[in-house]
Design a protein that fits this description.
Agglutinin, subunit A; 4-stranded antiparallel beta sheet; 3 helices; 6% helix; disulfide bond; mainly beta; 401 residues
Length: 401
């Protein structure tokens, strides 16, 4: 990363002042710097924020989609009180776009890394930065990848919280192709996410009538952690000790092929430690046995026995699975013939709330372990459930076939 080495001995920008290319603001605790830089192998200039002790780790970029072509840029205030980046001809190429006209505005680079960066996330979530929704204003904070290591403009991948049904994180490629999702919030954490009780950061999830967001803090001052989405669509939790010279990877998503969205088809489960990886759920069989023998599972799985809506069904409990996608939780599963499966929405205190699925069960993976067991109840005929729960009857049925 190329930058000039002039520093303004302040963390604050006031009306009438400007930050020119080569000048920098420094937060009061010497944690962050703001200024103009060029990525490696790039001639373009961008206004960004980076760690003072790790200048290569740029955590926010203002004009990522409208770069400067020379070193004549400047950060200043407009007449309306907005922060703006100007080019050589004094044209605005980026603005903070406040809806209010501000008198005597002041911009301060905080030791959290916040200037206006928390309102305009780039590809990195810092401690204290909210990822999610303000339901009143409609504002959404989500991460957007860079195009490449040399091009910080908005890339192909976005990661944010879906608030339809129970909140869960989703990643999309080019805005429309879902590539990854977590399980929904279960009262303790997003299903499938690793436990963080012993981690050097503390997560917080808020879910109420006005806000749905996730944030974290760094209570261990000597260890910094960040959450970043790279240009390849990989989400990483990074950590660095302040005296260290490198960032270490704590967590990576997707972790294995089963994390890729829709890795296995309808009514099947992805098991990363099995071969073949995709296997039909209990009570279901391959729609095409010939294709599955050739490791082609695209036709999916169908029920062994069709349900009779006039007969009372049974429910088979299966644990350690990521819940299917999508969900609907407004009707009672037992009395609705098209309901395929149900589960508790909150696992605390023995479980509460009800989620239901209709039609095919999509994007399911198996977990090897989970401290907060997730049970899913799949609707089968009462006879099938009896067979599954009685090994003698099951062996007898297999012998007859």
């Amino acid at each position: 990363m190329f930058m000039l080495n002039l520093v303004i001995a302040s963390d604050t920008l006031s009306p009438g002042q400007s930050i020119k290319d080569g000048e920098r603001l420094v937060s009061s605790g010497q944690s962050f710097e703001l200024g103009f830089f060029s990525p490696e192998n790039s001639k373009y200039r961008y206004l960004g924020i980076w760690y003072k002790f790790s200048p290569e780790k740029v955590v926010w970029i203002a004009n990522r989609n409208n770069p400067l072509t020379d070193s004549n840029g400047a950060l200043t205030f407009s007449d309306e009180g907005n922060l703006v980046v100007l080019n050589r001809s004094k044209s605005i190429i980026w603005s903070s776009n406040s809806s209010m006209v501000l008198r005597n505005p002041v911009a301060q680079l905080l030791d959290s890394g916040n200037l206006v960066s928390f309102d305009y996330p780039s590809d990195t979530q810092l401690a204290g930065m909210r990822m999610g929704w303000n339901l009143k204003s409609g504002f959404e904070g989500r991460l957007t990848s860079c195009k490449s290591t040399d091009d910080p403009s908005s890339g192909d991948y976005t990661n944010g919280i879906n608030v339809n049904g129970l909140p869960h994180f989703e990643m999309f490629n080019r805005g429309s192709t879902k590539t990854f999702r977590t399980g929904p919030w279960n009262g303790f954490r997003f299903m499938g996410a690793p436990a963080t009780e012993s981690a050097p950061f503390k997560s917080l999830f808020v879910y109420n009538e006005t806000d749905v967001y996730c944030e974290f803090d760094n209570p261990v001052e000597v260890i910094i952690t960040i959450f970043a989405l790279n240009h390849s669509g990989v989400i990483q939790r990074l950590q660095r000790k302040k005296e260290s010279s490198t960032w270490d990877v704590m967590m990576t998503y997707p972790r294995d092929p089963c994390d890729n969205y829709g890795q296995c088809v309808a009514n099947s489960v992805c098991k990363s430690n099995k071969d073949p990886r995709c296997q039909c759920l209990q009570g279901f069989v391959p729609k095409s046995q010939e294709e599955w023998k050739l490791f082609n599972s695209t036709s999916g799985c169908i029920r062994k026995a069709q349900l009779n809506c006039f007969q009372e069904p049974g429910f088979l409990k299966i644990s350690m699975l990521n819940r299917p996608d999508p969900i609907d939780f407004w009707v009672e599963c037992l009395k609705n013939c098209s309901c395929t499966a149900y589960a508790n929405s909150d696992v605390r205190g023995g479980g509460s709330g009800c989620l239901m699925w209709f039609g095919d069960l999509i994007d399911i993976r198996e977990f090897e372990q989970d401290n907060h067991v997730q049970n899913i109840y799949i609707k089968l005929s009462a006879y099938e459930v009896m067979l599954k729960n009685d090994p003698i009857l099951e062996r007898s049925r297999l012998h007859q076939t």
